[in-house]
Each structure stands twice: as C-alpha cells, then as structure tokens.
Design goal:
Order of helices and strands: EEEEEEEEEEEEEEEEEEE
Strand content: 35-45%
Distance between the termini: 92 Å
Length: 203
C-alpha cells in the first residue's frame, strides 16, 4: 500500500516510514547481486539482525570509504578489510583506548609521528593518572604497586622468584627481593638505613 504521504507499506496498511515492512513472523528485507553477496535486514521477536546471509564479508562505509569490516570468520577490522585477528586495527596513527565514563583506563598508541609511528606505547591509568607505561623507544615505569616476577604476591617494589622457595621472612620496606630456587634470598633496602641482607630458607 502507498498512503497519502507517499509511504510504502508491505504487510501493513499503515506504513509509518518511507518503506515499512511488517510480518507476523520475521520481517525481512534482502538485497542480493546475482551470484554475489546478499545483505539481510531482519526483525525477529527479540532481536534485530543486519548482515550478509552469504559467504561474504560485511563492510560499513562513511564518505565513500570502508571504515569497518566483519569478515566471514567473525574477525573485525578497523582500517583494514582483511582482519587477521578478532580485532585488527590498522593505520598510521591508529589508537586504541579503553575508557570508563570519566577517565581513560588503558591505551595502546604509536609513540609519535615520523620514525616513531611504527613504535608502540602501552599505558594503564588510575583515575586519569598514568601509573604504568611500557614504551618501546623511551622510559617505562610501574607505579601501581609491587611488581612480581615468578610470584603473584611480591613483597617489595621488585620481587623475583624462581621455583618454590620458602625463604627467610621479608622486610616489608625492602626495595628489591631476589629469591632463589630453593634457599637463598637477597634483600636491598634504602628507605632509611641502607643495607643489603642475605637470607637462607634453611636457617
């Protein structure tokens, strides 16, 4: 039906838009090139569906250029129509941010322009403050707390552990703890009275 406003209804006598397709089951609009991609718009009982129903990727465009791609395996590309991972972001200056409603939480960015455009920088934030940075061409830091290598319960700013050593008790003010595989511990402290302490799990 075509109403007095020029709206076209298919499956309805009261179209509310330029083209209104209704059905008691799933309402669908399908466009397809002969022997080519088919693009489906479908209204189900509790979900709306948009995509290809043939073995072809789906592209979204703006201003004539492809900005977003979902390939036939479900990989998503931004800046590429041939994504090689679940999320593939490509382009000089491409940036990825994770944000809460108020602050940046994490980011992956190129560390600059020119010769730095192919060098990565990763940051983690605490209430907008950059506490962790890994920079491939500059200074990196960890300011969020103690760092453990080989342990999930570091007892110092940097605590390395090999194997399952149960070494001597730690000084909670130690700046560095190096723990051996079975016995030895080295602790370095410089908060007030600087010292180096050697421990032994057997003692």
């Amino acid at each position: 039906r075509i109403d007095s406003n020029g709206n076209v209804g298919i499956g309805t006598t009261a179209p509310s838009s330029t083209l209104h397709v209704a059905d008691t089951g799933n309402a669908e609009i399908l466009t397809q090139r002969s022997s080519g991609a088919g693009v489906l718009i479908q209204s189900q009982a509790s979900v709306g569906v948009f995509g290809t129903n043939t073995n072809h990727r789906l592209d979204l465009k703006t201003n004539g250029g492809t900005r977003f791609t979902i390939d036939t395996g479900g990989n998503v590309g931004i800046g590429t129509t041939a994504p090689t991972a679940k999320l593939d972001v490509k382009g000089d200056g491409a940036e990825i941010y994770l944000k809460s409603a108020d602050y940046s939480v994490a980011r992956i960015i190129p560390r600059g322009t020119g010769t730095n455009v192919d060098k990565g920088l990763f940051s983690l934030f605490d209430t907008g403050v950059e506490n962790v940075r890994i920079d491939t061409e500059g200074s990196s830091w960890f300011n969020g707390g103690n760092v453990g290598i080989g342990t999930t319960s570091p007892g110092a700013k940097l605590h390395t552990k090999v194997g399952s050593s149960n070494g001597a008790g730690y000084d909670s003010s130690a700046g560095l703890i190096v723990e051996g595989a079975t016995r030895s511990i080295v602790q370095i402290n410089s908060t007030s009275d600087a010292y180096i302490m050697f421990g032994d799990a057997a003692q």
